[in-house]
Specification:
- With about 290 residues, the chain is an alpha+beta fold.
- The protein folds into two domains: about 55 residues, no CATH class; about 220 residues, 2-Layer Sandwich (Bacterial polysaccharide co-polymerase-like).
- The protein has nine helices and six strands, in the order H-H-E-E-E-H-H-H-H-E-E-H-H-E-H.
- The strands form two sheets. The chain has a four-stranded antiparallel sheet with strand order 4-5-1-6. It has a two-stranded antiparallel ribbon with strand order 2-3.
- Helix 2 packs antiparallel against helix 9, helix 4 crosses helix 6 and helix 7 packs antiparallel against helix 8.
- The chain is rod-shaped and about 135 Å long.
- The chain starts with a helix and ends in a 5-residue tail after the last helix.
């Protein structure tokens, strides 16, 4: 059979090629056209305070966590509400959130510390608007976190300062009781030289220690207030998204080439039934 009808393999090659090309054309036509838009941002580490209350950068390698925050519900809800996507897409709010999580992609730009927020959608304007709004909503979210964190630190420091003021006032009262000068204002530059022996010396040292602690806390608090007033931008947008004129999906040329190649590979299997049919119809005469 193969010796008689081997030429069928060659004859079916262009048929398979054409069939694969036509099938790929139909499939490509049916695949929704998608456009891509992206925003390039720089995510700066969160400001933290060390034991000296000075700003220090966040832990390295924190971007993976930030990627999830970009696609978190807190961020995407703002996008849905701002762009009114539930009404625009005629979908339930939760369905819109699920759709956004599937079309919003994040990742590091190789060789840099920059992050790309990429959005694919069948509507090119929606792709641009969503990419821009995700970056804006995430920036607001980070700024809110930074403000709450630093405000909490300042509030805690004020509490510590008030407690230290009470402690300082107590030690001031004890020192006055042992002082020879009577009731006078006491500070680091105005302490009595003499008092009631050893008790006075102990009270004087305690007062000076508590006063030093109080001044240190005030200085640290001033540094924290300066840091709070000069917090750098948490998110810096380097590339704003634009409307794409060229679809990224489907890839027409690639699909047609793959379809034709697939048809060519399948053509021998299409030839076998025909070869068998011809063999049965024209049996070999002995």
């Amino acid at each position: 059979m193969f010796k008689r009808y081997w030429w069928m393999l060659l004859a079916m090659a262009p048929v398979g090629l054409l069939a694969g090309f036509l099938i790929a054309s139909v499939v490509t036509y049916l695949i929704p056209t998608e456009y891509e838009s992206f925003s390039t941002i720089e995510i700066r580490p969160r400001i933290k305070m060390d034991t000296d209350q000075r700003p220090s950068p966040g832990l390295p390698g924190f971007h993976k966590t930030e990627f999830e925050k970009i696609k978190s519900r807190n961020t995407l809800v703002k996008v849905v509400d701002t762009l009114d996507l539930a009404n625009k897409w005629s979908l339930d709010r939760e369905d819109v959130l699920l759709a956004l999580r599937s079309i919003v992609k994040t990742g590091n730009i190789r060789g840099t510390d920059l992050v790309s927020i990429t959005v694919r959608h069948t509507n090119r304007e929606d792709a641009r608007d969503i990419a821009a709004e995700v970056a804006r909503a995430y920036r607001e979210y980070r700024e809110e976190l930074e403000s709450k964190s630093l405000d909490g630190i300042l509030l805690e420091m004020k509490k510590v300062l008030r407690e230290q003021e009470d402690t300082l006032e107590d030690s001031r009262g004890v020192l006055k009781r042992y002082a020879n000068r009577g009731s006078i204002p006491l500070d680091a530059a105005n302490l009595p030289e003499q008092g009631e022996g050893q008790n006075y010396e102990v009270a004087r040292r305690i007062f000076e220690t508590e006063l030093g602690i109080y001044e240190q806390i005030k200085l640290k608090m001033l540094e924290a207030e300066i840091a709070r007033a000069n917090v750098p931008e948490a998110i810096v947008v380097h590339d704003d998204p634009v409307i794409s004129d060229t679809p990224v999906s489907p890839n027409v040329a690639l699909n047609l080439v793959l379809g034709a190649a697939g048809g060519l590979l399948v053509s021998p299997f299409l030839a076998l039934p025909l070869m068998w049919w011809l063999h049965l119809r024209n049996p070999v005469k002995v």
